[in-house]
């Protein structure tokens, strides 16, 4: 029997949870169908989910169908909870992407498709709501092929046609050559192409009426390629939660070997229980084997994306929050609020809860207003905590446009470290990376490890607004230690100062750059309202593609891009001038240069030299005492020669 972990993902309101319900019912795992609108869906078990009619948290269910042993992970569909969906993708054998026949490919659908490609998850597509009037199967398939992948193929009732085989063969030159010679395509080849994300089987139906669901289950059973697991233990953590008794739960997928109770993990933590959940209920097992999804209560120090045993750590998440909120304590104890929020951040690390000692405030990062509403309700229901938030601010980032060698020197009495770092710009969306190209004879392995570890130990901030740095590579190129006086903390101080000193040099020549998040949007409005919309988009510093007329001649679709800062409140404007008939769909599409950087920088009034926790200045020693040296005077006093000339840096930019 094939053991498969499949995740159901979709744009909000596509019918994802309804499909999960129908699959469980058709497979005999449920005696009767629940419904989202009746608040009795098996996988929308949380009270908040029942109230809102949307999935907020990922849930697990299990079913058996023919030779298929399926673990089903239902994920949130709303864009504000995309970070939780992304956590699940790293442990899937297969994804079931649900698309509404009435809505087609939406902006968030494209984001999910990009994530599926990023994590290389084989994908089956289920087009739901085919019972709606005027749905056109051929037109929908063409849209899938044009907007997602040419390998989207109609698998219908799993009785494939010659045309279907030809379309599949065309997705791989080697397969096509064999097909033209033999006029045959084996099931083994099709399974391999599905696994390699060259072919994406498409099924059509109506989950609410269970139409097409049996075909989907049959397809999963027949076309999923069995996985061979290594013998040594490995596991990937994908979720942290707390049960009704407040016990911390670590959700993981075994990627190799077995895990038994009483085993030791993370040094000396004992596995006291192994749970396998099905909805809200669970059963305890003595052992989990490779391929299974299980839960370990009581572990500490685990986090989503963590690798255990032979499994390496996962990639940094692609989806990042773009809004920053400050908590209004409303008279509540700040330390108690911080404790509670850190528990929630333990479950969702993307909240990035930060306590500012200087401002005596708590800040956190969110995706949007729906997540904010849910968070406030969650704090009230779960912790009896009623707090408010400010209006929220855009989460800016900073990068550089030119390479620079930054120097940090830290030499109070009986301490010593000097660090030289090369800061160089990298491609948009690449994040912050660190490396070393320093000779071990110049700086020992232990000191180099200290430098690289400290670069990653905290969020490195820019000097324009104090926002996080991104899209640059920091490379250790030289340095110096003292056999007598150097300790690890010295290299921490020198490293952080070297980053800031390099940035201050670039700031003087306008080679630091402020970035802001941008939306990719789709706006459906009446044809007579196009002029108003285009004027609004231009006013918001956005760009747009040529408007496209819809199937209904009275409607027009405008797609384009605009800054989140300008467009985040535009949906209310659209509803007003279209009298509730317009539809605006926005998805964060990464960071780009800020459209009004000078105004933002002036408004934030950040003083980098006054930020003592991130100072660009160094400390030197003379006559037995340490003294501060301004960042611009450091180059003349550095003990180690510079590695790069101005010409070298120009070539690296």
User: What portion of the residues fall into strands of 2 or more residues?
Assistant: 25-35%
- Radius of gyration computed on alpha carbons: 27 Å
In DSSP terms (H or I, runs of 4 or more residues), the helix count works out at: 19
**How would the global form be characterised?**
globular
- Classify the helix fraction into a percent range: 25-40%
User: Low-confidence segments, ≥5 residues, pLDDT <50?
Assistant: none
Euclidean distance between termini CA atoms: 55 Å
Describe the structure.
- This protein is α+β, with helices and mostly antiparallel strands and 653 residues long.
- The protein has 19 helices and 34 strands.
- Helix 12 packs across helix 13.
In short:
The chain has 653 residues and is of the alpha+beta class. Helix content is 29%, strand content 29%.
Which properties best describe this structure?
globular, alpha+beta, 19 helices, single chain, 653 residues
List the helices and strands and how they pair.
Blueprint: E1 2-10, H1 16-26, H2 47-52, E2 59-65, E3 68-74, H3 82-89, E4 94-100, H4 107-118, E5 123-128, H5 137-147, E6 152-154, H6 162-169, H7 173-182, H8 187-195, E7 200-204, H9 213-223, E8 234-242, E9 248-256, E10 258-260, E11 264-265, E12 269-270, E13 275-278, E14 281-284, E15 287-289, E16 293-297, E17 307-309, E18 323-328, H10 334-347, E19 354-356, E20 361-366, H11 369-383, E21 388-389, E22 393-394, E23 397-400, E24 404-410, E25 417-425, E26 432-436, H12 445-457, E27 472-481, H13 488-507, E28 512-526, H14 530-539, E29 543-544, E30 548-549, E31 555-563, H15 564-567, H16 570-577, E32 583-593, H17 597-604, E33 618-622, E34 625-629, H18 634-637, H19 646-652
Parallel strand pairs: 1-3, 1-4, 4-5, 5-7, 6-7, 26-27
Antiparallel strand pairs: 2-3, 8-9, 8-17, 9-16, 10-15, 11-12, 13-14, 18-20, 18-21, 18-22, 19-20, 23-28, 24-25, 25-27, 28-31, 28-32, 29-31, 30-31, 33-34
Helix pairs in contact: 12-13
């Amino acid at each position: 029997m094939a053991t498969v972990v499949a995740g159901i993902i979709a744009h909000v309101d596509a019918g994802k949870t309804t499909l999960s319900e129908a699959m469980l019912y058709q497979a005999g795992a449920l005696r009767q169908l629940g419904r989202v609108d009746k608040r009795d869906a098996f996988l929308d078990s949380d009270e908040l989910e029942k109230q809102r009619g949307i999935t907020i948290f990922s849930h697990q269910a299990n079913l058996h169908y023919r030779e298929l042993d399926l673990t089903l992970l239902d994920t949130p569909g709303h864009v504000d909870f995309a970070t939780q969906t992304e956590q699940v993708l790293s442990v899937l054998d297969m994804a079931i992407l649900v698309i509404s026949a009435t809505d087609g490919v939406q902006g968030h659908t494209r984001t999910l498709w990009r994530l599926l490609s990023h994590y290389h998850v084989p994908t089956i597509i289920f087009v739901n709501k085919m019972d709606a009037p005027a749905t056109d199967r051929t037109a929908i398939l063409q849209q899938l092929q044009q907007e997602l992948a040419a390998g989207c193929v109609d698998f219908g009732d799993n009785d494939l046609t010659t045309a279907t085989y030809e379309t599949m063969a065309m997705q791989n030159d080697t397969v096509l050559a064999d097909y033209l010679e033999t006029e045959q395509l084996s099931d083994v080849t099709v399974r391999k192409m599905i696994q390699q994300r060259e072919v994406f089987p498409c099924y059509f139906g109506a989950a609410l009426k269970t139409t097409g669901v049996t075909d989907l289950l049959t397809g999963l059973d027949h076309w999923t390629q069995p996985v061979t697991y290594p013998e040594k233990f490995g596991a990937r953590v994908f979720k942290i939660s707390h049960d009704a008794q407040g016990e911390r739960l670590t959700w993981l997928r075994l990627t190799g070997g077995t895990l038994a109770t009483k085993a030791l993990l993370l040094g000396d933590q004992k596995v006291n229980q192994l749970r396998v959940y099905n909805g809200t209920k669970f059963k305890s097992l003595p052992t989990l084997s490779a391929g299974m999804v299980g839960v370990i209560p009581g572990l500490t120090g685990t986090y989503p994306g963590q690798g255990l045993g032979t499994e390496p750590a996962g990639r940094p998440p692609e989806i990042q929050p773009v809004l920053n909120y400050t908590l209004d304590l409303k008279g509540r104890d700040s330390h108690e609020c911080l404790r509670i929020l850190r528990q929630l951040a333990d479950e969702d690390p993307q909240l990035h809860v930060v306590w500012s000692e200087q401002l005596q405030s708590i800040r956190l990062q969110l995706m949007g207003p729906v997540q904010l509403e849910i968070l406030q309700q969650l704090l009230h229901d779960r912790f009896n905590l009623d707090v408010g938030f400010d209006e929220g601010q855009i989460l800016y980032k900073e990068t550089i446009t030119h390479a620079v060698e930054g120097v940090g020197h830290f030499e109070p009495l009986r301490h010593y470290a000097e660090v030289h770092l090369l800061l160089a710009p990298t491609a948009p969306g690449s994040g912050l990376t660190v490396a070393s190209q320093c000779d071990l004879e110049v700086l020992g392995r232990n000191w180099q490890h200290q430098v690289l570890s400290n670069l990653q130990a905290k969020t490195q901030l820019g000097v324009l607004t104090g926002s996080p740095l991104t899209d640059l590579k920091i490379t250790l190129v030289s340095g110096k230690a003292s056999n007598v006086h150097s300790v690890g903390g010295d290299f921490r101080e020198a490293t952080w100062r070297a980053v800031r000193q390099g940035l201050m040099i670039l700031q003087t020549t306008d080679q630091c750059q402020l970035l802001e998040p941008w939306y990719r949007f789709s706006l459906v409005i009446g044809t007579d309202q196009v002029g108003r919309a285009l004027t609004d988009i231009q006013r918001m510093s956005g760009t747009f593609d040529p408007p496209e007329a819809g199937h209904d001649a009275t409607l027009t679709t405008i797609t384009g891009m605009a800054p989140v800062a300008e467009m985040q409140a535009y949906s209310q404007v659209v509803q007003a001038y279209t009298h509730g008939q317009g539809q605006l769909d926005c998805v964060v599409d990464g960071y780009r240069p800020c459209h009004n950087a000078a105004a933002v920088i002036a408004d934030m009034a950040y003083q980098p030299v006054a930020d003592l926790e991130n100072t660009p200045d160094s400390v030197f020693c003379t006559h037995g005492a340490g003294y501060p040296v301004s960042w611009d005077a450091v180059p003349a006093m550095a003990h180690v020669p510079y590695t790069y000339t101005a010409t070298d840096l120009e070539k690296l930019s």
